[in-house]
Amino acid sequence: MTRSSVPAPVTAVMEAAGAWLPVRMAEVEERLTAQTVGHGPRLGEEAEATLAAGGKRLRPLLVLMAAGNSAPERAVRAATAVELVHMATLVHDDVLDGAPVRRGRPTVFARSGRGRALAVGDLLLSRAFAELAVPGAEAEIAELSSASVALALGELAQRRDAFDTTISETRYLERCSLKTARLFESACRVGRLASGAPGTEELAAFGRDIGLAFQLLDDVLDVTGPPERTGKARGTDLLDGTVTLPLILARRVDPALEGVELRGLDQTAAEAICDRIADSGALEEVRARARDGTERAKRILVADAFTDEECHLLGLIADGVVDRYS
Amino acid sequence: MTRSSVPAPVTAVMEAAGAWLPVRMAEVEERLTAQTVGHGPRLGEEAEATLAAGGKRLRPLLVLMAAGNSAPERAVRAATAVELVHMATLVHDDVLDGAPVRRGRPTVFARSGRGRALAVGDLLLSRAFAELAVPGAEAEIAELSSASVALALGELAQRRDAFDTTISETRYLERCSLKTARLFESACRVGRLASGAPGTEELAAFGRDIGLAFQLLDDVLDVTGPPERTGKARGTDLLDGTVTLPLILARRVDPALEGVELRGLDQTAAEAICDRIADSGALEEVRARARDGTERAKRILVADAFTDEECHLLGLIADGVVDRYS
After folding, report:
1. DSSP code of B325?
2. Is pLDDT of A128 > 90?
3. Does residue B209 surpass a pLDDT of 80?
4. ω before B226 within 30° of 0 (cis)?
5. Are B46 and B120 spatial neighbours (Cβ–Cβ below 8 Å)?
6. What's the pTM value of the predicted model, to 2 decimals?
7. How far is B198 from A37, CA to CA, in rounded Å?
8. Gap from B238 CA to chain A (nearest CA, Å)
């Protein structure tokens, strides 16, 4: 249950949208770079690893898409803030997981150690709120704070559930909601709030659905690999003690998976469990649920509040979440 | 160079001020409690250790004092937010230091492990900004974000300087500024901003000066103890590799301290270094500097922007910072 270890469907949307989207995304990138270069040599050393942590910028893209083609500066700030929260969480996650590499580059933790990585994460989280410190943005601040709290609660839940192979599907879904779907939801919500256009709650539901689908498919990829594509070994979640939906569904039909012990697992044993999960048919079911989720998300957008262009572009993102993983 | 390991001079000010101050402080305490009980059983277990982390609430007291006796709800929120940032930092510091106890109680780290403590710190930091998400408070948000970034940069600086016994006084003072004085400054500034009264910059300078004095005296106490009073063993900073002003000044007059090796130090050796530092006369010099700082702070307040009551009460805090340690 790592997050966004796979490139997001940014390219298709960037090509389909008008020039406004690449322009705004470039502004977001500039603002992100400014976060890590504006604090002297101390942080400069960490800058590359930190900026790389977020990856393909799916969340800021959602913010801008939700704001629409007249996205004001406030939306660019909100997009930057959402990505900063995401980056902060990844930098802290890498500390906890002792992760050496993210997206083919050394993590801040690996480059500079636990202490510096913890401080860099705190710094990014603090900077997120500075981005939103503009008149009238109090709803966005409250929203992003709430999402950031959800991420922390999700981390707490994941720690508590670690190595417990009996956790329920409900509990798993609650964790996905906190760790992934909530920030997707927030991305959509703060974008729409910044634009002042109607349809905020519909977009929030859209974000929640595709965020959940994103996480479901990420959890499938942890089982299937291949490592060249996912950037991590198969069964990494199992090795971390993180029980995800593929195992939860597979254990219902394969008694050998029922009482499996994850503590002390090695890579070979983890891959053997991945194979059993794949043989159970669970992966197809998880993929089908993710597809149902993105279809439901697209149906939400068919409302008076959205232009045809918005429906088209947001639909491309929803499809992209599924297509990247099929 | 731990922070606020010693009770702050809250009582004298609470007694001297009108009823408004205890009432407002009780509101802050209620808001702080709400942070840790409103998130279900996950966080409930951590609540006690987390709430205890902040200690005597010196920073929220400064916020309210800076706001004055007509302190609006915005000031109470700002006071809560400042304390939440402080608590978040302490919880994260305890993770890095592997600290078992703070203020006589087990730390979040000791009770629940690194992962949960990291998440609890993130949660507290995120909640701080939610407290400030009210119309018109964008200046306070920017200010607190900036202070929080300074804390993270201070942590980075401390990590980088660890075990380097050659660091300069300038570098030490810069670190104090980031790790301690900046949040004292912010406490004063956000309080005054919330009240709308003039004198924000004077109060910011006041906060900076007493924050630095506070840190200088904390660093003296690390050398002198006694442990019953400080709640930690003598020489804890030395054992952590943190070089502070007492050693920096002492090494100028005691050649044996010049090339001292802090790596691999044990408690007995650390206490022996403490004794040498004390014998050098450095502690008297650090105390004198702290006193100069608080006197300078009090002089700043003699301006048209402040009432006699404000000068009196803030002066009590400044004196208290010195008296507690003399």
Report:
1. T
2. yes
3. yes
4. yes
5. yes
6. 0.90
7. 34
8. 17
Token pair belonging to A194: 């910044």
Average pLDDT over residues B123-151: 93
- Tokens 């304390």 — which residue? B83
| Whether the Cβ atoms of residue A159 and residue B115 lie closer than 8 Å to each other | yes
pLDDT band at B7 (very low <50, low <70, confident <90, very high): very low
Q: Check residue A226 and report its DSSP letter.
A: -
- What tokens appear for B134 in the block? 């009210």
Which residue's structure tokens are 């990291």? B118
ipTM of the complex: 0.88
Contact B126 A149 (CB under 8 A): yes
Burial B98-121 (b: 16+ CB within 10 A, else e): ebeebbeebbbbbbbebbbbbbbb
What is the nearest CA distance from B133 to chain A, expressed in angstroms? 5
CATH number of B10-323: 1.10.600.10
Q: Which residues pair with B105 in a beta bridge?
A: B102
Distance (Å, whole) CA B156 – CA B168: 17
Number of H helices, E strands in chain B: 18, 2
Owner of token pair 């940069």: B153
Report the residue of chain A nearest B97, measured CA to CA.
A115
Task: Give the best residue of A111, A140, A145 to mutate against chain B (max B CB count within 10 A).
Answer: A145
- Report pLDDT digits (tens) over A229-246: 777 789 999 999 999 999
Give residues with Cβ within 8 angstroms of B128, minimum separation 6: B80, B81, B82, B84, B85, B88, B144, B148
pLDDT higher than threshold 80 for residue B308: yes
- Classified as helix, coil or strand, B301 is coil
* Contact call for A120 and B96, based on CB within 8 A: no
What whole-number distance in Å separates Cα of residue B214 and Cα of residue B3? Answer: 9
Contact A119, B155 (CB under 8 A): yes
Which is it for strands B105-106 and B101-102: parallel, antiparallel or unpaired? antiparallel
Q: Pick the residue from chain A with its C-alpha nearest to B140.
A: A133
- Supply the DSSP string of B147-216, one letter for each residue: HHHHHHHHHHHHHHHTT-TT--HHHHHHHHIIIIIHHHHHHHHHHHHHHT-S-HHHHHHHHHHHHHHHHH
Paired tokens of B113: 């492990």
DSSP helix/strand/coil, A319: helix
Three-state DSSP state, A101: strand
Domain residue ranges in chain A: 10-323
Structure tokens belonging to residue A151: 């991420």
Residue A186 and residue A205: Cα distance in Å, rounded?
A: 10
Write the DSSP assignment of A232-243 as a string of letters.
Answer: S-TTHHHHHT--
- How far CA B310 is from CA of A140, B22, B78, B111, B298, in Å, comes to 35, 15, 19, 41, 11
Question: What amino acid is encoded at B154 in this protein?
Answer: G
Percent of chain A with pLDDT over 70: 92
Q: What angle do CA B22, B136, B150 make, to 5 degrees?
A: 75
Among A96, A130, A157, the residue with its CB nearest the CB of B146 is A130
The answer to whether A89 touches A12, Cβ cutoff 8 Å, is: no
Residue-wise pLDDT tens digits, A161-195: 999 999 999 999 999 999 999 999 999 999 999 99
The residue type found at B69 is N
User: Can you tell me which residue has the tokens 């594509």?
Assistant: A229
Q: Per-residue pLDDT for B252 more than 90? A: yes
**Which of A244-258, B55-69, B107-121, B170-184 has the weakest average pLDDT?**
B107-121
Residues B280, B254: contact at Cβ < 8 Å? yes
Does B119 sit within 8 Å of A153, measured CB to CB?
A: yes
